[in-house]
Design brief:
This protein is of the alpha/beta class and 579 residues long. Helices cover 64% and strands 10% of the residues. Helix 1 crosses helix 10. The longest helix has 53 residues. Bound molecules: adenosine-5'-triphosphate (ATP). It comes from Methanospirillum hungatei JF-1 (strain ATCC 27890 / DSM 864 / NBRC 100397 / JF-1).
């Protein structure tokens, strides 16, 4: 879809309003009626002047004056409802688009973040969708009005004299070219500006998220200068964009006044030649002005249309993105309460041009057993957990739970079957209670507190002035690493799923706390099939089987004692940690 022309993008955008057509049609009728009433008031004004000239009796003017007053009121009503209905419809479309986008990001994540920055996605969700308001509220129905009203006017002029209609038609066609030219001339610029804005947003988000590092390394001044440079460059880019827009405005002004004057001159000549009644002279002016007035909003908005198209393009790019993991699973498959996991000849890399991270990995974790995976940093341990959760799929080989290929399971069901406690848990900027409740949305307050007790964090939370209602701050800044990790453990306790992944689950705990919650973790692991990753090898010695992963390959496998006897990489890692 990235290759689509502006017209194709606009047609695709128009397709998004299907379920709001009634509102838009009502808005369009109000807008068109308002334009026609304006012309009607002008015509009645002409009639009023002629009547005043011909009749000495003022009461003859009253019905015309009354009609003008009623039309003026009706114009006000249409002037209210037109924009109101168009905006209501537009905002409904925008909220649909945001919902569609959020729904789409879910299956695209986390792979999407390899190619896109968070700021980029935020920019699409906020700025790029917001700018589409211009199209839905100010362009779509106005295009219809800009065609319909001039057509009616042309019929009126045709009735007065065909040549007047011909002249106006030429000017209207030239006016219609302005939006097309403005879009064409600004197309690349619009893309560029949208991208620039997204990059600037990403840079700002990066700067805010990395504020600790920026302060710690004294890079605040550099960052500020970079931001100022970006803002200046953006201003420069905007200037050339605005130049095209100014040309469009100027051309429109020339065409409108030129069109009206030439129609008037032609009408005057026709009057002098006796081909039309002089009564029609002011009417031709009112009709021509009315026709141009109906096109004004489209021409005005068209100056921004290239930005709108660029926004649409970026939105559609995400909507057309194909998730790396496809949902094929049937919800009918039911796994046992304590499933077996079988990883069979798994090959995986993060991209076609990337090296393999896992190379023919095979192992089985029998039902209710614990497999620990150890290895040097970057060996591919976390990647294995990603495959187990189906954040990615293996390129070759398979992962089976209870004999079912996980690609055949319903994604939600699979992810509900697996709990994960990771080394870098994400906490939402809400209360501790809600953060624990992430493990089970329907958990009662008692269940949340019970889980916190098991995770040895209840006492700490109760000691806080706001207890469980304490807001943890952005990314849980209010809590220490160890406290965050215990919240993660509480979540997993609450989720209580049959498969448990512990990825450095106790790495942030001091030895004292780790000892304290060791029993809890054992309790948590009981009756579950567990996959455990640990650098601190003291935590894996009791595992039923230990897998040693080296550069994506399993090079040793056995119990702690077996591996010590084998005297390979595991034994050397143990020796290194005992030093
Ligand atoms: N999203 C990603 N995109 C591209 N490469 C990635 C991605 N995630 C990890 N990698 C690469 O895959 C390799 C394995 O990473 P992984 O995180 O699985 O290792 P690990 O054994 O868990 O390391 P550690 O013990 O340091 O956590 C690394 O070389 C890493 O650079």
């Amino acid at each position: 879809m990235t290759q689509a022309t502006p017209l194709q993008q606009l047609i695709r955008l128009s397709g998004l309003v299907k379920s709001h057509l009634r509102l838009l049609a009502a808005g369009m009728i109000c807008d068109a009626t308002k334009q026609l009433i304006t012309i009607g008031i002008g015509l009645l004004g002409v009639f009023l002047i002629y009547t005043a000239k011909e009749q000495s009796n003022a009461s003859a003017l009253l019905p015309i004056g009354g009609a003008i007053l009623i039309l003026a009121l009706a114009r006000g009503v249409c002037g209210y409802f037109g924009p109101y209905l168009n905006h209501i419809a537009a905002f409904q479309v925008l909220s649909d688009l945001r919902n569609q986008l959020y729904r789409k990001v879910d299956p695209l994540a986390p792979a999407i973040f390899i190619s896109r920055r968070t700021g980029d996605l935020v920019s699409v969700a906020i700025n790029n969708i917001e700018i589409l308001e211009l199209f839905f509220a100010h362009t779509l129905t106005q295009i219809v009005v800009a065609v319909l009203v001039p057509l009616i006017v042309l019929c009126g002029l045709l009735f007065i004299h065909p040549s007047l209609a011909g002249i106006l038609l030429i000017f209207l066609i030239m006016t219609a070219l302005i939006p097309t030219l403005a879009i064409r001339m600004n197309e690349k610029k619009g893309d560029h500006l949208r991208l620039f804005l997204a990059n600037m947003g990403s840079f700002l988000i990066d700067s805010v998220q990395g504020i600790w590092e920026i302060l710690a390394f004294g890079r605040g001044k550099d960052r500020l200068e970079a931001i100022i440079r970006m803002v200046l460059e953006y201003r420069k880019e905007q200037r050339s964009y605005v130049q095209v827009n100014a040309c469009a405005s100027a051309s429109y002004a020339v065409l409108v006044s030129g069109g009206i004057v030439i129609v008037l001159v032609a009408a005057t000549i026709l009057t002098q030649n006796g081909e039309i009644n002089p009564f029609y002279l002011p009417i031709t002016v009112i009709l021509s002005a009315g026709a141009f007035s109906a096109t004004r909003e489209v021409v005005e908005v068209s100056k921004q249309l290239s930005m709108t198209i660029a926004g649409a393009k970026r939105f559609f790019e995400i909507m057309d993105d194909i998730p790396v993991v496809q949902e094929n699973g049937s919800p009918a498959v039911a796994l046992s309460a304590v499933p077996e996991i079988e990883v069979s000849n798994v090959w995986f890399r993060y991209g076609e041009s990337e090296p393999y991270v896992l190379k023919g990995v095979s192992f089985t974790i029998p039902s209710g057993c614990t497999a620990a995976i150890v290895g040097l940093t970057g060996a591919g341990k976390t990647t294995l957990t990603h495959l187990l959760m189906r954040f990615w799929d293996p390129e070759k080989g398979s992962i089976r739970i209870d004999g079912h290929d996980i690609r055949d399971l319903n994604l939600n069901y699979l992810r509900n079957t697996v709990s994960i406690v990771t080394q870098d848990i994400f906490l939402f900027n809400t209360s501790i209670r809600e953060n624990i409740r992430v493990g089970k949305a329907s958990a009662t307050d008692q269940e949340v507190e019970q889980a916190a007790r098991f995770a040895r964090i209840h006492e700490f939370i109760s000691g806080l002035p706001d207890g469980y209602e304490t807001i943890v701050g952005e990314r849980g800044i209010r809590l220490s690493g160890g406290e965050r990790q215990r919240v993660a453990i509480a979540r997993a306790i609450l989720k209580n799923s049959p498969v448990l992944i512990m990825d450095e689950a106790t790495s942030n705990l001091d030895t004292g706390t780790e000892m304290m919650i060791r029993d809890t973790i054992r309790e948590l692991m009981k009756g579950k099939t567990v996959f455990m990753i640990a650098h601190r090898l003291s935590t894996v010695v009791h595992a039923d089987t230990i897998l040693v992963l080296n550069q994506g390959e399993i090079i040793e496998q056995g119990t702690h004692h077996e591996l010590l006897q084998h005297d390979g990489l595991y034994a050397s890692l143990i020796a290194a940690q005992e030093i």
